[in-house]
């Protein structure tokens, strides 16, 4: 299994541990990653500004992966939704595709709808499989309650992103439960984290975050888990900021899914960047079963 | 006379320009901590900093940086050999030309008492240094033609500098060529140095024959072939009167090459006195280049070394805040417009669709400098800088790749803060207010709206794209509004958001541009796609809102233009 790893703009600067944890987990599961240095912005920040600029930006990434005949694996859900949307629009609209290809041709690139864009969670679930992951788990969690946050742009619009059932998804819950943790029921599970409005309407953005954190707490979750750059920033850095500036603290730190999974696979916690989160999550180690499981024959 | 006036005028402009540019380093205020520090505090902090660095162990670091980074540019060598070679050729060649040839009266003739520009090794070296520059320019052009991928666009600033350099070099070579073939120049030299009377025709003939044969002079009346004796006699005369301060022009290989090309029309060129014209072009181009230097990208000859040296000894968090503020101002000038940042920029690709140069980091930096200079910028320009600043994703790649280590990311954050002070915040937030103020029909209460302001073109813009045109199948069930978490967040959503999603769809059916574009809902949409997912009619509600935001921003741009 080989993929081109798409990191986007934020992970290499603000969430380096998401990258290192993902690489470590995927290596354990025999997923080979290829880095393409020429990848650019996924196009997400351009969507409000100019549709064609957004599609072009996405298309260049798709074309770069296509040149190496690789499918893309992406860690961020906003980036995932954006690349999928661009892929969809380019398949749907021949004229748009022609325009984009004319520009890409200047660099010797072309988009031919030949590759797939997959989110890391769907690679783990569909390509690797729960069974294989389970075999790699050496020290599962016990008594750990996790509020699984799906993220809007992976779920919707479902006909385009095709991640999971948009109304009753279970993919991420199953990935959480394979670690031995309990994925709790919480009513705002499928709601927005508030991230997209940060910087445009902070008050509204924080209202969303606040609601979700309170709800996760109500459901008895010890931690939130995410699989998205923006959601993680919202539940980690922004939650911390809310606690210090607004004085509202629900004490539901957020852990990135590869960190959650990596820890019970026995991957070094420094590689997983457990200390790199803004809100301390190292307490999660206390939920691992005391003795590693015996090597299954 | 013209020479003297031109020299002193351009020298004055050059010095004034340098003072102006350097004074900017102490006047430009970038960043919060810089605002409270006066220019005089910064000057004294800089003087103190320089003095304390020079008289400390840090002098070793400075010397090392000066040798390796400034003179030898090892950082560029590690990055790209050809580019290093091109740059080293241009700058070493040009500086040697300047010192040996340009400033010969001040330097070369003082150091070497046997100096004549027509004598070797000076005659040869002048052409050799010129060749080095030309080779450097050639490599630079070759690299540019060869490189694929997104190239940073070259602007006027880049071309002017190259054009001046080219005029200086080319006029110099051709001038040399015309002098070699020029009979009148030859006669001048004979009158001055040969000590022959007009009556000594035989000697004059012999010397002339020798120079026509061996030195490339084109004479209207002395033409070969010449017999051995005449040439022998010419040679003796030459060795007596000329050889001491004139080597054979073949040593000036470029000028000689040019002279061979020109020789068929040498008499014509000589009569038209092209030689003098070229001399004017040559020195005027040099003086113009000097005067223009402080205002051109060549100013980096001064600013970049200063930055490299200062950057090597600064300590983040420890250095005097006044000096850090000055450093940030020097960063603006240290940029050589090389475009590495733009080549690596994550969003530069968008420039193909949004023709705003401020998207590209190397242009954005220049725009920041214009902004700091205090010249009143138009609303259109400010909006363009704002757009460029916020399309940037702060991915840090430009900063990582800058060959001289400018902290661009830090400058971008400061640029955004600077724009915010002028009222130009994030475009989405800014547009929400601007559009709300312009299209305030949503604020009208209990008033009947006429349906006259119908804009068919506007709807055309929406129906042009497959996803946005889906609004037309909306049957008004309000599901989108009922499931919208933004609407659900407010006690009185209409008060906070203006039109609600289903109402926006309805406006589009009515072709009511003002109503649709003026709604705050557009900008407060969290893009969670719940509405679109639940629409029983398949209206791509979120995508329609995206499209309306695109149109609103386009409208604001066009309005400012």
What does this structure look like?
The complex is a heterodimer of chains A (297) and B (561). Chain A is globular. Chain A is built from 13 helices and 8 strands. A 4-stranded parallel beta sheet of chain A has the order 2-1-3-4, with helices on both faces. In chain A, strands 6-5-7-8 form a 4-stranded parallel beta sheet. Chain A is an alpha/beta fold and 297 residues long. The longest helix of chain A has 18 residues, at 229-246. Chain A starts with a strand and ends in a 33-residue tail after the last helix. In chain A, β7 (223-226), α12 (229-246) and β8 (254-256) form a beta-alpha-beta unit. Chain A has helices at residues 11-14, 16-28, 51-67, 77-92, 94-105, 120-128, 130-136, 152-155, 158-161, 171-177, 202-218, 229-246, 257-264; strands spanning 2-6, 32-35, 71-74, 117-119, 145-148, 182-183, 223-226, 254-256. Chain A has 2 domains: 2-119, Glutathione S-transferase Yfyf (Class Pi), Chain A, domain 2; 129-287, Rossmann fold. The mean pLDDT of chain A is 96. Chain B has 561 residues and is an all-alpha fold. Among the domains of chain B are: 58-147, no CATH class; 326-425, Fumarate Reductase Iron-sulfur Protein, Chain B, domain 2, CATH 1.10.1060; 431-560, Alpha-helical ferredoxin (Fumarate Reductase Iron-sulfur Protein, Chain B, domain 2, Orthogonal Bundle). Chain B contains 32 helices and no strands. In chain B, α6 packs antiparallel against α8 (122-146) and α9 (156-181) runs antiparallel to α15. Chain B starts with a helix and ends with a helix. The model of chain B has no long low-confidence stretch (mean pLDDT 90). The chains are: A alpha/beta (297), B mainly alpha (561).
């Amino acid at each position: 299994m080989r993929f081109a790893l798409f990191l986007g703009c934020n992970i290499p600067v603000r969430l380096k541990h998401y990258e290192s944890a993902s690489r470590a987990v995927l290596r354990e599961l025999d997923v080979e990653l290829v880095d393409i240095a020429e990848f650019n912005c996924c196009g997400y920040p351009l969507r409000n500004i100019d549709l064609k600029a957004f599609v072009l930006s996405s298309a260049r990434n798709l074309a770069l992966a296509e040149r190496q005949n690789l499918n893309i694996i992406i860690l961020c859900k906003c980036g995932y939704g954006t690349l999928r949307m661009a892929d969809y629009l380019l398949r749907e609209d021949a004229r748009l595709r022609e325009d984009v290809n004319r520009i890409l041709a200047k660099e010797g690139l072309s988009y031919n709808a030949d590759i797939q864009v997959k989110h890391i969670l769907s690679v783990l679930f569909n390509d690797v499989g729960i069974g294989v992951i389970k075999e790699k788990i050496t020290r599962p969690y016990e008594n750990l309650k996790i509020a699984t946050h799906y993220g809007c742009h992976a779920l919707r619009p479902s006909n385009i992103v095709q991640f999971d059932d948009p109304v009753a998804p279970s993919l991420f819950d199953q990935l959480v439960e394979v670690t031995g943790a309990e994925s709790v029921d919480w009513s705002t599970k499928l709601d927005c984290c508030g991230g997209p409005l940060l910087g445009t309407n902070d008050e509204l953005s924080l209202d969303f975050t606040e609601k979700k954190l309170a709800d996760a707490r109500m459901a008895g979750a010890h931690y939130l888990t995410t699989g998205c750059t923006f959601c993680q920033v919202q539940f980690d850095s922004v939650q911390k900021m809310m606690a210090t500036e607004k004085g509202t603290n629900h004490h539901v730190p957020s852990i990135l899914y590869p960190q959650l999974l990596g820890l019970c696979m026995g991957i070094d916690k420094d590689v997983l960047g457990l200390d790199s989160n803004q809100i301390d999550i190292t307490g999660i180690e206390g939920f691992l079963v005391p003795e590693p499981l015996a090597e299954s024959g | 006379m013209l020479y003297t006036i031109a020299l002193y005028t351009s020298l004055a402009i050059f010095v004034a320009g340098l003072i102006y540019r350097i004074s900017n380093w102490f006047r430009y205020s970038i960043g919060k901590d810089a605002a409270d520090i006066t220019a005089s505090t910064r000057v004294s902090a800089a003087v103190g900093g320089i003095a304390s660095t020079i008289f400390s162990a840090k002098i070793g670091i400075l010397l090392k940086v000066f040798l390796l980074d400034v003179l030898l540019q090892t950082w560029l060598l590690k990055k790209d050999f050809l580019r290093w070679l091109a740059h080293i050729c241009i700058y070493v060649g040009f500086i040697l030309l300047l010192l040996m040839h340009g400033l010969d009266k001040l330097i070369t003739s003082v150091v070497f008492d046997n100096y004549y520009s027509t004598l070797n090794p000076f005659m040869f070296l002048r052409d050799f240094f010129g060749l080095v520059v030309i080779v450097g320019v050639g490599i630079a052009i070759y690299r540019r033609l060869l490189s694929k991928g997104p190239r940073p666009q070259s602007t006027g600033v880049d071309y002017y500098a190259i054009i001046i350099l080219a005029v200086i070099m080319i006029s110099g070579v051709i001038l040399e060529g015309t002098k070699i073939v020029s009979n009148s120049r030859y006669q001048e030299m004979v009158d001055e140095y040969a000590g022959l009377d007009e009556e000594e025709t035989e000697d004059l003939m012999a010397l002339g024959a020798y120079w026509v044969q061996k030195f490339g002079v084109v004479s209207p009346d002395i033409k070969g072939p010449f017999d051995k004796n005449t040439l022998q006699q010419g040679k003796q005369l030459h060795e007596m009167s000329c050889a001491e301060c004139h080597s054979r022009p073949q040593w000036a290989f470029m000028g000689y090459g040019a002279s061979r090309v020109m020789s068929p029309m040498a008499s014509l060129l000589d009569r038209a006195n092209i030689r003098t014209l070229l001399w004017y072009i040559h020195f005027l181009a040099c003086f113009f280049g000097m005067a223009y230097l402080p205002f051109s990208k060549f100013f980096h000859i001064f600013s970049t070394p200063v930055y490299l040296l200062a950057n090597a000894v600064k300590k983040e968090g420890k250095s005097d805040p006044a000096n850090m503020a000055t450093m940030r101002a020097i960063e603006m000038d240290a940029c050589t417009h090389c475009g590495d940042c733009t080549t690596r920029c994550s969003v530069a690709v968008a420039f193909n669709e949004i023709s705003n140069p401020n998207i590209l980091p190397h242009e954005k930096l220049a725009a920041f400098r214009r902004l700091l200079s205090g010249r009143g910028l138009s609303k259109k320009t400010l909006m363009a800088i704002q757009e460029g600043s916020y399309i940037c994703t702060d991915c840090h790649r430009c900063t990582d790749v800058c060959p001289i280590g400018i902290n661009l990311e830090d400058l971008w954050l400061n640029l955004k803060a600077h724009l915010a002070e002028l009222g130009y915040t994030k475009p989405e937030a800014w547009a929400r207010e601007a559009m709300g103020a312009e299209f305030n029909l949503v604020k009208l209460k209990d008033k009947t709206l006429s349906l006259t302001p119908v804009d068919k073109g506007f709807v055309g813009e929406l129906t042009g794209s497959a996803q946005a045109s889906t609004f037309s199948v909306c049957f008004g069930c309000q599901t989108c509004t009922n499931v919208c978490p933004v609407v659900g967040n407010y006690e009185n959503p209409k008060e906070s958001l203006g039109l609600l999603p289903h109402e926006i769809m309805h406006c589009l059916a009515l072709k009511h541009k003002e109503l649709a574009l003026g709604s705050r809902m557009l900008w407060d949409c969290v893009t969670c796609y719940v509405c679109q997912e639940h629409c029983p009619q398949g209206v791509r509600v979120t995508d329609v809102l995206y499209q309306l935001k695109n149109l609103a921003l386009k409208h604001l741009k066009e309005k400012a233009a």
